[in-house]
Amino acid sequence: MSAETGARGRERVARAALSRLMEPSDWVGLALVAAAGPQDALRIATGVLAAGRRLQEDLAGLLGRRPENEPGRMLAEALERWAPRVKDLAPERDLATIARFGGTLVVPGDGLWPAALADLQLGAPLCLWVRGRAGDGIPLQEQAVALVGSRDSTGFGNAVTADLATGLVQRGCHVVSGGAYGIDAQAHRSALAAAGEGQGPATLAVMACGLDRYYPAGNEELLRAVAARGLLIAEVPLGSAPTRWRFLQRNRRIAALAGATVVVEARWRSGALNTAHHAAELGRPVGAVPGSVYSANSAGTHRLLRDGSAVCVTGAAGAAELAGPVDAARQDGAGRQEPPADHDGLGVEELLLLDALPVRQGVPVEKLAVVAGLPVQRVLAGLGRLELGALAVQDATGWRRGPRR
Amino acid sequence: MSAETGARGRERVARAALSRLMEPSDWVGLALVAAAGPQDALRIATGVLAAGRRLQEDLAGLLGRRPENEPGRMLAEALERWAPRVKDLAPERDLATIARFGGTLVVPGDGLWPAALADLQLGAPLCLWVRGRAGDGIPLQEQAVALVGSRDSTGFGNAVTADLATGLVQRGCHVVSGGAYGIDAQAHRSALAAAGEGQGPATLAVMACGLDRYYPAGNEELLRAVAARGLLIAEVPLGSAPTRWRFLQRNRRIAALAGATVVVEARWRSGALNTAHHAAELGRPVGAVPGSVYSANSAGTHRLLRDGSAVCVTGAAGAAELAGPVDAARQDGAGRQEPPADHDGLGVEELLLLDALPVRQGVPVEKLAVVAGLPVQRVLAGLGRLELGALAVQDATGWRRGPRR
Fold it and tell me: Which residues 261-320 of A have a C-beta within 8 angstroms of B?
């Protein structure tokens, strides 16, 4: 492949190969790459080279020296773990295949590499396999909000997700999710629907499997649309099956790519809570959408609210605010639009007086003084202020409530 | 009245009179009572005596010396405020009337005086007019939870209130509320329904008007039931109308009498939020019940959750916990009863292996090693552990998933 020549090209090929050898978050493998660089790490992982004493010490330093972390033994075990996959390595073929899908491999140092992943430190992925509108860039974390939740979402959960995704896209944010059924699917679908042309990728689906397959199968059409107008991202290479381990690691990537994670609906135990915990570990804000206390699908979000690990999110404005600095021009005042009450801004004496004023038949000032418990002078002064505000009127019989309500 | 003779009796009469002269939270009046005692305070308030220099200095000390708080002027204004009501004073008659209602006046120093009110400091009420089962005592704050919310409650709000009130009474707690329509009425009604005989007053209604009237009129039957089997409490004397000022002060008393205040449903602006703020000012825990983000009646509770001033309450156990030490025997585990998943407690290698195991046709160990990315030795060890847990089985063709799901 001509694109993969030179030092950068050789590093890309090496990382592509390593991503097939090593499962996501294989700490020994990640430490090896950090200590030896991807090309030597690949030579060591495939048994071409062996680690010398100095490299072993670097590994020990990266992994932490504990009795069970004896670096020689850990590396030996890792080599055994990687060995069965060595014969299947064909990174150039993988790179050609992703290109045929209109995609690319993004590695650290590329302009496209998301700065947000730096918070994962040693745990950052070796590379990202990407399909879709990568030319527009991978959204900045301040402009990306993860919407996650149950696969078996309710009508309520779907409606909230649709409103959040639509509102986020209208505010210039991107919606990150996992491509699964339920909340994930609704988030991607509504983000795509809300996005105009020329806005960049409205939505990112972070997958637990290789990008040559659409999983789950029922979401194939949706995921094709995401690949066409958004971004599909995976840490595992083409051909990889979606295993439980990869799902758990995928959740970590969702949390890392988004400036904030909002759980829309989640049962008491739910993968979405796992994503929320990863976000919290990374110091990223977590939001939870409240729902009926009778809905099992909100038990998980209420749990997050109760233990203080999430803030209450009721609309897109709040969700966008969590992820980054708020663009005031795009902010709305939803929920803050109740008209002021007639007694707003009144002092205690005016309140007492307002309560004392009869609605129909006027009464003299002396009577108001007794009812309100105020001296006559104060009643006269207060009536003047209330009259200015159309809260009190005087007629032949005396004072009564004014027309303003 | 023979019951009102002696020093204690004279103090009761004085406080009964003062509660008619002074509105709730009349700071000058409260300071005067604190500095001069109730009997001299009444003599000064009615113009029989005047405040000397020393007393004026004490008042200034209690009210804080600020330019606008010049004590002589403040007292002069207060005297003017109280003067129109002096001619209506008839405290012995009021005490006789409350006794005819089967009630009593409770003053500081009485055995029945709630210790919880001490947190109000100078702002504590002058006295409490009480009807109902006062003989059983006024519940301790650790055993009293205020349930408050909208007058125009929804079916959801009523159902949650009923569940909370029932669960609280079953846990030995007492339900405090304001006797209003909606959430308040539901709270009192369900608490009464859940209470057995001999449990003391299941519910306390703190009123903004005199206890000779039932307000609002539509709750008359309910309030009669509360008077018979619970407690009606007011700071204002018999004959007092429920004014807006008295409602606001009544909210403060609700917050002060309960160990915790739970807002079930509240609009963005709602008197229930006022009660919640009073509770927070007193350092008492505040709870809020989440609801649909589409319900205007939950906008206020979500506001409390979002700004961190309330914790998320989804059931009676959580509400009771807020108020005081939890009686472990009465605690339930609601919401925590989902069965454990089959992968609970498994390590990373077992998870990888479990994912690699086919469901139907068995495969050899070497194949599992490639799929799982594990050395053969580890696959063998892991299969042994999974087999013990019925998560893996061996047959003629090799290994596959076990019967446990």
Answer: 267-269, 289-294, 298-299, 301-303, 305-306, 308, 311-315, 318
Q: Are both A72 and A152 inside the same structural domain?
A: no
Q: Where are the alpha helices (DSSP H) in B146-285?
A: 155-170, 183-194, 220-229, 244-257, 271-281
Residue A130 belongs to some domain of the structure: yes
Whether complex ipTM tops 0.85? no
- B25 with B163, same domain: the answer is no
Here the CATH number for the domain that contains residue A370 is 1.10.10.10
β-bridge mates for residue A174, sequence order = A144
Residue A46: give the domain boundaries: 2-90
**Structural element, H or E, at residue A208:** none
Query: Is the residue at A338 inside a domain?
Result: no
Q: Which of A74, A90, A106 is the endpoint of a domain?
A: A90
Cβ-contact A290, A314 below 8 angstroms:
yes
Q: Provide mean pLDDT across the span B236-259.
A: 95
Q: Is residue B287 part of a domain?
A: yes
The closest of B293, B289, B337, B292 to A268, measured between CA atoms, is B337
B323 and B361 inside one domain: no
In a domain, B97, yes or no: no
Nearest alpha-carbon partner for A178 in A103, A255, A114 = A255
Contact A81 B377 (CB under 8 A): no
The count of structural domains within chain A is 3
The answer on B367 and B230 residing in a single domain is no
- C-alpha radius of gyration, chain B, whole number: 30
Residue in the block written with tokens 């090693």: B369
What are the beta bridge partners of residue A393?
A: A400
Per run of 10 residues, the mean pLDDT along chain A (length 405 residues) is 74 97 94 96 96 91 72 87 94 97 95 94 96 89 96 96 96 96 97 84 96 96 96 96 93 96 94 92 95 95 93 96 66 42 68 84 86 84 84 85 74
**What tokens appear for A210 in the block?**
């290789």
Q: Are strands B128-132 and B231-234 parallel, antiparallel or unpaired?
A: antiparallel
User: Is the domain of A241 the same as that of A378?
Assistant: no
Contact (CB, 8 A) for A175 and A208 = no
State the pLDDT at residue A345: 64
Whether residue A326 sits in one domain with residue A190: yes
| Angstrom distance (rounded) from CA B232 to CA B266 | 24
User: Of A275, A295, A330, at which residue does a domain stop?
Assistant: A330
Q: Report pLDDT for B345.
A: 64
A377 touches chain B (CB under 8 A): yes
CA angle A10, A13, A18 (to 5 degrees): 125
Q: Which DSSP symbol is given to B87?
A: T
Buried b (16+ CB within 10 A) or exposed e, A360-393: eebbeeebbbbbbbbbeebbeebbeebeeeebbb
pTM: 0.79
Residue of B nearest to A290 (CA): B290
First to last CA, chain A: 77
Residues B140-195 have pLDDT tens digits of: 999 999 999 999 999 999 999 999 999 999 999 999 999 999 999 999 999 999 99
Question: Do B325 and B358 lie in a common domain?
Answer: no
Do A153 and A214 have their domain in common? Answer: yes
3-state SS assignment for residue B379 = helix
CA distance B20 to B96: 15
Interface of B with A in 137-176 (CB under 8 A): 156, 159-160
Looking at the complex, does the CB of residue B3 fall below 8 Å from at least one CB of chain A? Answer: no
What's the N-to-C CA distance of chain B in angstroms?
A: 78
- The answer to whether the CB atoms of A306 and B289 lie below 8 A apart is no
In DSSP notation, A115-142 reads GGGGGGGGGS-S-EEEEE-GGG-PPPGG
Residue A164: give its domain's CATH number: 3.40.50.450
